[in-house]
Amino acid sequence: GVEVGPQPQGVARADVLDKMRKIVKHGLDFVQLFNEGKEFPQCTIEVFKIMEKVDYPRNKNGEIIAIIHPKLQDQDWQPLKNGDPLFLTLDGEVIPYQGNCTVYPTFINEAAYYEKKQAFVKTEKIKLTAKHLRLPVS
């Protein structure tokens, strides 16, 4: 599957559709080249590994008491460092990120995740090495 976003629910965005078309085309091109016997050398890529889901701050009754800070909104996949603004309480108090490493939040303030008690997902950037790849000769 391919998920391209973010985009609001029920909205069709031309830029997101274009990105989806390009990634599907690249995938199909890869399959064709692989089936034709093309050799792909070993390579290293950066990926984002999910660490944990983060909920909104809540009171003792389970009600949300802070929202995503404006400096974090729309910053999916961007580095979040210790002390950076994370949430903003309804009283205007900034709640900073408190962590021992830089993380890369995603799915920030997605409407579909409110009911799942998820303000965003923390990810870490890691490098993976893909081995040399070639269709085995029959």
Automatic annotation (TrEMBL):
InterPro entries assigned: AspA/AstE_fam, Aste_AspA_hybrid_dom
GO MF, any single term: hydrolase activity, acting on carbon-nitrogen (but not peptide) bonds, in linear amides
GO cellular component, one term: cytosol
Domain of life: Eukaryota
Residue ranges constituting the AstE/AspA barrel-sandwich hybrid domain according to the UniProt record: 44-125
Protein name in UniProt: ACY2 Aspartoacylase
Organism of origin: Rhadina sibilatrix
Designated gene of the protein: Aspa_0
